[in-house]
Specification:
Phosphorylase Kinase, domain 1; about 325 residues; 9 helices; Aminoglycoside 3'-phosphotransferase, Chain: A, domain 2; two-stranded antiparallel ribbon; alpha+beta
């Protein structure tokens, strides 16, 4: 299904391919959809990303690299790709399972936040708003697949419904997803903003510097889509015990970006669409990559319970958008 490439071999490849000096060390940081390595060289610290075969083509990675470069030119704290010795930014490795794109990025300055806080989420909101605004004039000669709401809903229903033993749960999930799809489709013509989305707006994908600046990374899930939906991960704080984090994030976002009235109304409906797409991924790709031991037996039950709470507490006629 997939190979795990030798850090020593990749270090030698990086030393040959990039003008970054002698490689001092190459260490595997994470292995999942993509394999991510930390590379230390005379010129500094880097992240070498080897994309999974069949996940992204070299052309699609080119879109991601172009986006990060565009955001960097706009003044956002991101880490652009490092140019290769041949003048390109994306290479290809011939792995046993097939070709795998590879790119080298600077190592994100700062450190992971020790804990969530309202001030952190406020600054995070400001950053995401700036990112959405700064990408309004972004274009690339490389392709990237846009987020397809209808396709996501269909895939989630096909993957999740057969795994639900209770008829009531199956009817709930089908009804919720279909209603969410309908509401987003209705609001799409009422002023939803379409543009570049990061695709994984969570604290997992940022560092904070000593002076409090946010550095965002991991644009692997980025692509064109409804930008209101890009905020869904933070919006779930509304039922996860600390709604003040969402309030702080939204306040910051509105200072640098624009969430239209249609976007505010649509956002709660994006949550079940994206959450169930994430459930589908965990029950298919995650298990394939990590094995059946990686999810506890209560995973699906807990996810359905959270969606029921979202419906009861947020998706009601009197709920504030």
């Amino acid at each position: 299904m997939r190979s795990l490439l030798s850090p020593a071999a990749l270090g030698a490849e990086a030393e040959r391919t990039y003008n970054i000096g002698d490689i001092e060390d190459c260490t595997l940081l994470r292995s999942l959809t993509n394999d991510v390595y930390e590379v230390s060289a005379a010129g500094g610290r880097y992240v070498l990303k080897v994309y999974g075969h069949g996940w992204r083509s070299a052309e699609e990675v080119g879109w991601e690299v172009d986006l990060i470069a565009h955001l960097s030119r706009k003044g956002l704290a991101v880490e652009p790709a490092v140019v290769r010795a041949d003048g390109s930014y994306v290479g290809t490795l011939a792995a046993p399972e097939g070709d795998r794109p590879v790119a080298l990025f600077g190592f994100a300055e700062g450190a992971k936040p020790s804990a969530p806080s309202s001030p952190l989420y406020y600054e995070f909101g400001r950053f995401v708003g700036r990112m959405h605004t700064a990408s309004a004039d972004y274009s690339s000669t490389h392709p990237r697949v846009a987020f397809d709401v209808a396709g996501s809903v269909e895939d989630s229903l096909q993957a999740v419904l057969p795994l639900l033993s209770e008829r009531e749960d199956r009817e709930f999930v089908a009804s919720l997803l279909n209603r969410a799809h309908e509401r987003v489709a209705e609001l799409a013509s009422a002023g939803l903003s379409w543009g570049v989305c990061h695709g994984d707006v969570t604290l997992d994908n940022l560092n904070v510097t000593g002076d409090g600046r946010i550095v965002l990374y991991d644009f692997d899930s980025a692509g064109p889509g409804w930008q209101a939906g890009d905020l869904y991960g933070v919006a779930t704080w509304r039922i996860h015990g600390e709604p003040k984090y969402w309030d702080a994030f939204l306040s910051g976002y509105q200072e640098t970006g624009e969430l239209t009235p249609a976007g505010l109304e649509a956002l709660p409906w994006f949550v079940p669409i994206h959450e169930l797409d994430n459930v589908r991924w965990h029950l298919t790709d995650w298990l394939r990559l990590r094995g059946s031991h990686s999810l506890d037996n209560g995973y699906l039950t807990a996810q359905i319970a959270a969606l029921r709470r979202w419906q009861a507490e947020v998706l009601t006629p009197n709920a504030a958008p």
